[in-house]
Amino acid sequence: MKKTFPALLLTAMIATGASAQDKTDVAQSQTDVKQALTDVKQPLTDVTQSQTDMNQKYLTSDSQNQSGKRHSLKVGFDLSMTKSLQTRGMKFQSDALDLTFGMGGRLNLLASVEYIDAHHHHTSFEGIGLGGGLSYRFGNDNLNIGKAVFKVGSTVGNADWKHTYYDVSFRINPLVKKQKSPLFIGLGYRYADSHTAGIGDRSFFYASVGVTF
Q1: Of 115, 113, 114, 118, whose CA–CA distance to 92 is shortest?
Q2: DSSP character for 161?
Q3: By the 8 A CB rule, do 95 and 207 touch?
């Protein structure tokens, strides 16, 4: 029995040593497999990052394009007919075209041309007026409340009544609940600085009706 025990112990030690070596080999194999998986995942990560960068580039480009559209020059115009109250025996009526230029905001530049027909007692005075100014829009793109308009103009050419006018008005959309309604009515004040002998300066209050495009 004493001789058999060392042999068994030696056999167990040999077997144990073989098992540890096997475990070492298995662990090394697992490490190799993990490294291989890592090497496969890295190209996939690079492809995903490239796709993300490309998407970001397209989104940035699209945002810039949309921003450019929002800030592009916009042109509109108002057609209106105006009639004033009589002041010291004189009144006027006019047909006007007002052009607006802006970047899509509330405040816009304005250029105006109008045919003016004034009546002083029983005499008619006709002329063409050219002017410019500013308009300020109330509301937003989906809710058209109206606008405030300030303009300065003067008659040109051979006008019967030569004068410079200073004009401020408020143009209100009566159909404010309807989107993009072009109709407006306006109330305004005009001061006319006369350059024709026999006709003094005048202040007029007036009403107007028109459409916006």
Answers
A1: 118
A2: S
A3: no
pLDDT in tens, the chain (213 residues): 545 544 554 554 555 554 555 445 545 655 665 565 566 456 556 655 665 665 565 455 444 444 444 568 888 889 999 999 999 999 999 999 999 998 778 899 999 999 999 999 889 999 999 999 999 988 776 677 889 999 999 999 999 999 999 999 999 988 766 656 688 999 999 999 999 998 999 999 999 999 988
Helix (H, G, I), strand (E, B) or coil at 206: strand
Residues with Cβ within 8 Å of 81's Cβ and at least 6 positions away in sequence, in order, are: 93, 94, 95, 96, 208, 209, 210
Polymer length of the chain: 213
* Cα gap 212→183, rounded to integer Å: 6
Q: Which residue has the tokens 């042999």?
A: 7
